[in-house]
Amino acid sequence: MRAFVFPGQGSQKVGMGVELAEASAAARAVFEEVDEALSQKLSSIMRDGPEDQLTLTENAQPAIMANAIATLRVLETDFGVSLADAGDCVAGHSLGEYTALCAVGAFDLATTARLLKLRGQAMQSAVPVGVGAMAALLGADIEKATALAKAAAEGEVCEVANDNDPGQVVISGHKGAIERAIGLVKDHGIKRGILLPVSAPFHCSLMQPAADCMAEALAETSPDTLALPLYANVTAGEVTDANEERELLVQQVTGRVRWRESVGAMHADGVRSFVELGGKVLTPMIRKIAGEAETASLITMEELEAFAKSL
After folding, report:
1. What's the pLDDT tens digit per position in 293-310?
2. Is residue 60 pLDDT above 90, yes or no?
3. What is the pLDDT of residues 166-208, one digit of tens each?
4. Cβ proximity of 229 and 239 under 8 Å
5. Which of 168, 198, 228 is the last residue of a domain?
6. Which of 94, 172, 262, 297 is catalytic?
């Protein structure tokens, strides 16, 4: 069994998608459609920067999605590989879950772009700049990270945001609590705590205003049938019902990204091949979670062609 997976925030970089757009009309069509949907030349920011504009949450989220969907469209159109035929399930990390839903036909491309633009704006505005923070805990499992977050909270929000792999957990919350947590890592048997260069404390209860915003937007957006099952971030379980997944997307804004558990669940259900489209950030995590599984990261035309020939 094969899973196609889609990266989340942090995988953006200036120049993303340029090679695909130069080589493939299918990729160019994706970037043009996203530009039109957003009434914004997002493709220009992706191509030329400046970097600080691309890293803005409201730009990074639709940009990462557009790049991954362009990669998928090239695979399908230029190399004749259908996602539904070549894959058995999909998953995405945080915003990547929206990309996965677009990939399996739940949302069309324009709708996905607009939802992610709104999601980025809502997450950015939910907490004033400087009030929240996030930190990566290296050498931490979920039990150690949970204990550390509880000890550091002291009445403020300090919660596990991302359970990425067996040795990396991300915490999120009030800046003071996150800084206290970094100072306490050694006491909890954790190797290191690193403050992340993010503009807001994602995936914690401080994001409730953004969750409310997305609940309203998603209530007005009817998803279509999923062509393949999706493993959801907040449950780490398989979802086939589009309306159930719509509810999970709302919970995802404040909820934990259970990536380690999601990959483990896919592996337990028989997935032995994981293919990351449009990034190279999930593959190292997957190797740590399901070491014997085959992995591939597809970004370039050469990588896409080689993968198509391997099938």
Report:
1. 999 999 999 999 999 999
2. yes
3. 999 999 999 999 999 999 999 999 999 999 988 899 999 999 9
4. yes
5. 198
6. 94
Domain boundary pick from 165, 198, 231: 198
User: In what order do the strands lie in the sheet containing 89-92?
Assistant: 238-239, 230-231, 89-92, 2-6, 273-277, 294-298
| Claim to verify: residue 95 and residue 149 sit in the same structural domain | no
Indicate whether 193 and 217 sit together in one domain: no
Give the tens place of pLDDT for each residue, 118-133. Answer: 999 999 999 998 899 9
Q: Tens digit of pLDDT for each residue in 73-112?
A: 999 999 999 999 999 999 999 999 999 999 999 999 999 9
> Does residue 289 share a domain with residue 150?
no
What is the DSSP secondary structure assignment for residue 236, as one 8-state letter? -
Q: Are residues 306 and 210 in the same domain?
A: yes
DSSP state of 257: B
Cα–Cα distance, 257 to 233 (Å, whole number): 5
Question: SS3 for 135?
Answer: strand
Q: Count up the domains in the chain and report the number.
A: 2
Tell me if residue 94 is catalytic.
yes
54: domain CATH number? Answer: 3.40.366.10
Active-site hit among 174, 188, 203, 267:
203
- Take residue 278 and report the two structure tokens written for it: 């449009």
As a whole number of angstroms, the distance between CA 41 and CA 32 comes to: 8
How close are the terminal C-alpha atoms of the chain, in Å?
Answer: 12
Better-predicted residue by pLDDT, 229 or 12: 229
Domain of 8? Answer: 2-126+206-310
